[in-house]
Amino acid sequence: MMHPSSYPLSVRLLGFTPGECVRMSALLARAPGAGPPYSCLHDDSLQEPDLYIANGDSPTALTRLGCLPPASLQPALVIGDDPGNPGAGPWRTLTRPVDPLQLHEALADLLETRVQVLVQQSCRTTRRVLAERRRRPRLAPDCETPAFYTRLRRGPVDGAVLIIDKECGLRNQVARVLDPRRVPVEWTDSLCAAVRLCDETKVALVLINTAAVGIEPYRVCSSIKSQDGAQRTPVVFLVEHSFHYDSVRARHAGARGLLTTPVAGRHWMLTFQKLLDLPV
């Protein structure tokens, strides 16, 4: 059995309309008393989901599922049937209308299977599954040799992780994750200092705490990204659920995306694997 967590389990919704996303989020929020909490990821979220829920009536959503790692590692639930081939595919399915109890039972089963597979892998010399580094969704499986994609890929920028916040608690949390990898973590509460650090030192990633009083994240991001040589340095917003994230404004400022706080240790590491040059 899975144990309750203080962090919500993250869900990536695929192929649903905005109205359907709202209704699905409401269903997930009504978790049984003994069940884990769930949270749907924002479209701009960089967090790796714990599971996927896809609209079975959307060919694009099913194509994206087909490009994911094995279903046991990236569990997915399909709502409805594939219009081209009803009932096909390796994924667990639920028909419409969605029954809340069946929904949560199916999600619990998928997550339990994933935990068991990960435990089995940790006992074997199996190659670890790495975080997806693509900035856009896969719409077709990789068909070329690994060398082909290596030639196309530009590695992450080398340097420190810079945290912009009014308190040092976030810096300490990130440092606990990255210290074993010997990645330096810097912290500042000043826009001017942040811009100067990015100009005078090597910075591989910038994290902005949007909850910090007196820090205007869009302005900070724009100021950093406007510097020469900062185009490839990702800037990520750390947002609380109550924060109104403006996707258009964030992209215009040059932000790579967001992470919803609190962030569990496993999600920190997957994000850093995605954005930093960490050894495997």
Describe the protein's architecture and organization.
By secondary structure, this protein is α/β, with parallel strands linked by helices. Helix 8 (247-253) links the parallel strand 9 (235-239) and strand 10 (257-260). It is built from 9 helices and 10 strands. It is globular, with a radius of gyration of 20 Å.
Summarize the structure.
The chain is α/β, with parallel strands linked by helices and 280 residues long. Helices cover 35% and strands 16% of the residues. The model has no long low-confidence stretch (mean pLDDT 84).
Question: Key features?
Answer:
5-stranded parallel sheet; alpha/beta; 280 residues
Based on Cα principal axes, name the global outline: globular
Q: Name the average pLDDT.
A: 84
Low-pLDDT runs = none
Oligomerization state:
single chain
Strand content: 15-25%
Question: How would a textbook summarize the main sheet?
Answer: 5 strands, parallel
Q: What fraction, in percent, of the residue positions are helical?
A: 25-40%
First-last Cα distance: 30 Å
The count of helical stretches stands at 9
Strand order of the largest sheet: 2-1-3-4-5
Radius of gyration from the CA trace?
A: 20 Å
Class based on secondary structure composition and strand pairing: alpha/beta
> How many β-strand runs?
10
SSE succession: EHEEHEEHHEHEHEHEHEH
